[in-house]
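Re: the 824-residue chain
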Amino acid sequence: MKPAMNGTVPSDVDLALLDAAYVRKPMNVGMTLVVTLTIGLLLWSVLATHTLLAGCAALLASSLWGHLECRAYRRAVLGPSNLRRWQGLFALQSAAAGLAWSVAPVLTMATQPDGDSLALFVGILLGVSAVAMNSMAGQRAGMFAFLIGTLAPTSLIAGLADAPAQRLAALVLASALIALMVVGHQSHLALRRLIETGMRLQANLDASHDAVVGMDDSGRITDWNRRAAELFGWTAPEAIGRMLDTTIVPERMREAHRQGLARYLATGVQRVMHRRIELPALHRDGREFVVEIVLSPLGSGPARSFTAFLTDISERKAAQERLALFRRVFDASTQMISIVDGEGYAVYQNRAHQAGLGYRDEEIIGQHFSLTVAPEALAAFRAEIGVAMRNGLSWTGQLLLQRKDGSRFIASKHVGFIKDEVGRVQYAFDIFYDFSPELARREELAAAKEIAERASMAKSEFLSSMSHELRTPMNAILGFAQILQYDGSLQARQLDQVQEILRAGRHLLELVNEVLDLAKIESGHLQLALEPVALAAVVDDCMQLMQALAAPRQIELHTQLPPHAELHADRTRVKQILLNLLSNAIKYNRDGGSVRLSAEPARGKRWRISITDTGCGLSAQQIEQLFQPFNRLGAEHGSIEGTGIGLTITRRLTELMGGSVGVQSTLGKGSTFWLELPSLSQPTLATAQPLAAPAMTVAPLPCHSVLCIDDNPVNLRLLVQLLTLRPQIQVLTAASPARGLELASAQRPSLILLDIHMPEMDGYAVLAALRADPDLQSTPVVAVSASAMPQDIERGRAAGFNDYLTKPLDLGNFLHVVDRWLTR
């Protein structure tokens, strides 16, 4: 075919036929030269010299023409546009070749018409015509032109002669011409059909998705379709004729390939024939990939051949490996995983699913998902899944499932959907786990939490009750003792005894307060209200309260604060911390000493507050034990009273507000306690403003009326006695809420002091009634209660009390609050 000559693949049957004719033409030219030489030698003595030379010259000229034409064809590019031209050239050269064969017979009949030479030339012409008919069957026009050029002139000359032998020869040649043309026509049609069939077969092979490779029994490639060229990188002309093992078989497997082929040829065992085999294959560039091979034998004679159909399955193998990886991952998962198709029928379960539900693969694959759902939960689950599918969402929730053995459990599920291009659900995947242990754990945790909350509530109620019950008698003890302290008729010995009562009562109150505070902190019930706190205002309040403690020992109090220092903390707890540190600095100071409170910016948006005293100082060993609860570092053997838990509470409160506390001390010189508390803004150090420690003053008051409402006669009498220290005040008393409301409505007092815990109506109900009266809406109402827990104070302020005083009352603070609201 033409690809063997010029690399051009014919596009149709005519191109293929012409290419095949030109492939045989060099052979025809060669045969003509051989026959010419043979005839010339054999007939040199028989024919006339000029006849022999003329015939040989014509044949040589025809052969030269054919040779030049073949060379021109090899250099040309055959196509539909020049097909007719090359067919015409072929036919013209064929006619010339036929005429060249008729030159010697025609000249011989014209000059030597004897029977022997006539018979010789008739035999030669018929033989040459038969060979040419077979050789040029692909080109019908060229074949007919050759036959006519060869037989027609001789038949015509012989027919014009008078001799019977010549006429017989003419008849034979004419009959042979007709017969050869008929047979040649049929040969042409048969060859055309054969080529058409071959081209259709080749087209089918080239259109195949598989690579089709033919080989003979030696392993040499005989066929190679287009897909094989694409798959292995070798074109058909390059591959055909090569050994299969050195072309597509990796080097490490070539010996096994040769042995397998030899074993098959020797034994005829066909266990690999017509079976799909996966083997590695080699691309021309050295790259290896996996192919699937189906090998089919062709024929069973001694010269057998085979056709191999090869498919690149690299992507399929990669997909299988990925699928196997996913399977291993799913099987390694402790969660149960199943996949169902769009109709809800199971197509996969992992090992955890099999172990959890008890169904083997063959028992659950192909079954509907409802097999594992408890019947009573199925309808609701279908409805929820349907809503999720319609909205394009996944579904997450709990569902009651049923195992193969009938046992049930609650599963925590996540169901997702995989849809096709048009939005139909193809698959759904279900990932879940047994939620029953978690439910049991949660129920157990909820029960434990409920028990803890009840215990915490009981503890809070106990603390609140203890606080209230202890403060109520302490209020009477300290209150009347403070009144006696201001009684001028007492003798010195009696006044000293009153001082002892006050000292012991205050110590007991301090102990009760600090123990309750520590209990609240340890139990986590301490509530903090973080807000901006002006440091100067808090320090001012503290200094006023500490002045009475420092004055008898002539201890000077000094402050040096930036004017706009502001903390982000709980105001009440900051005041508690400062009072604790200031009281310690005074108690453990020397007579005539000093206490200095200062503040400066610290790193990280903090203020550092320092309290420096001139006491005896602390050793390093004492500092290590300083913040331990109930550890007074030996001071319990001295005359200074204390509980040993004040500093512990100070540290815990500071840390709860996001701060820190520490101490620096030198024996014999004094100590500096410092605490750092956060600020909302970056602190800046402005000019410090020294604040003088104010003394407690008594401001003259205009005449006012104060209504005291308390169901406890002792507390009520104490309030009256305390208010007698303000002669300008008219005191009104009510032992019941109803009587208090009557007096308030009738007298319209300037200030109302109201107890919280009272029968019939508590203080909150009385406050609501007072606020509902238009004439009393603006009257300040101060709560006076033994309920001193932070939540009690917060509740009182939230309810609308103007202020909240806790029992036992401090005389100075009590009078300060009364004066403040009466002057306001």
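The longest helix spans residues 436-485.
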